[in-house]
Design goal:
- With 250 residues, this protein is an alpha/beta fold.
- It is built from 11 helices and 8 strands.
- Helix content is 36%, strand content 16%.
- α9 links the parallel β6 and β7.
- It is globular and about 45 Å long.
- The two termini are 16 Å apart.
- The structure holds 2-phosphoglycolic acid.
- 2-phosphoglycolic acid binds next to β8.
């Protein structure tokens, strides 16, 4: 529904500065900016600066995978929004399912991170999605709406800056993908929620994530409700990522 699709790579705890640079030498040798799409990369914190440097002459956006909500202080192991921005990030993932399920991040914390990112000038990409047990219990929308509730109270201009990534937990890294139709149903409900919360209608961007691959990306992004994809495993290989970001939209 947005005029530009977003193809976002989440490298997780893979590719340090050297690996990221080698990837980009390879990927950029065939990269061509296209008017109908944006490419975003979320490298590990330690590789942010080298990725920013490598893509400086392109329109590729670089984001952090996680930030802390406080401005600064005694938070060993954490990175502030200002530090990510200083390294050249313009966005950050918030509430990725691994943050929620492996590190116990709560909705309260994701809400604070979204607000800190907005205040510090980063685009928050809020990740939402249900587990397999929740899906089988028919609780998908209940869970997703609870995760969206952290946005309640934000001004329309702030809501307009947020990107949502719908990532069913059971589809992440498993090879199981939601069908384009199943994903569209959830996207439509997220869009309805965002509009009701005050987001200006045309600005809401909702990506799908979970086992996106060169072989299924075209079907996913051709759905009107899917404004792009957030890709883990298949974004780690430069050829595979070139295939995904170069997919034909005809
Ligand atoms: P995957 O990961 O593409 O490897 O399933 C997606 C994500 O976790 O963002």
């Amino acid at each position: 529904m947005s005029d530009k699709l977003i193809f976002a790579a989440n490298w997780k705890m893979q590719l340090g500065p050297a690996g990221a640079s080698a990837f980009l030498v390879d990927y950029l040798s065939s990269y061509v900016a296209r008017a109908d799409r944006e490419v975003w990369i979320f490298p590990a914190a330690v590789a942010l600066s080298s990725v920013v440097e490598r893509v400086a002459h392109t329109e590729i956006r670089v984001g952090a995978q996680n930030v802390h909500w406080e401005l600064a202080g005694a938070f060993t192991g954490e990175m502030s929004v200002a530090m990510a921005a200083e390294a050249g990030a313009t966005a950050t993932l918030v509430g990725h399912s691994e943050r929620r399920h492996v590190f116990g991040e709560t909705d309260g914390e994701t809400g604070k991170k979204v607000r800190a990112a907005l205040e510090g000038g980063l685009t928050p990409m809020l990740c939402v999605g249900e587990t397999i047990e929740q899906r089988e219990a028919g609780e998908t929308m209940k869970v997703v709406v609870r995760q969206l509730e952290v946005l309640r109270g934000l001004e329309p201009a702030a809501l307009a800056r947020i990107v949502i990534a719908y990532e069913p937990v059971w589809a992440i890294g498993t090879g199981r993908t939601a069908t384009p139709t199943d994903a569209s149903v959830v996207h439509a409900e997220i869009r309805t929620w965002m509009r009701a919360a005050g987001a200006p209608a045309p600005t809401v961007r909702i990506l799908y994530g979970g086992s996106v691959k060169p072989g299924n990306v075209a079907d996913l992004v051709s759905e009107a409700e899917i404004d792009g994809v957030l890709v883990g495993g298949a974004s780690l290989d430069a050829r595979s990522w070139a295939h995904i970001t170069g997919v034909s939209l005809d």
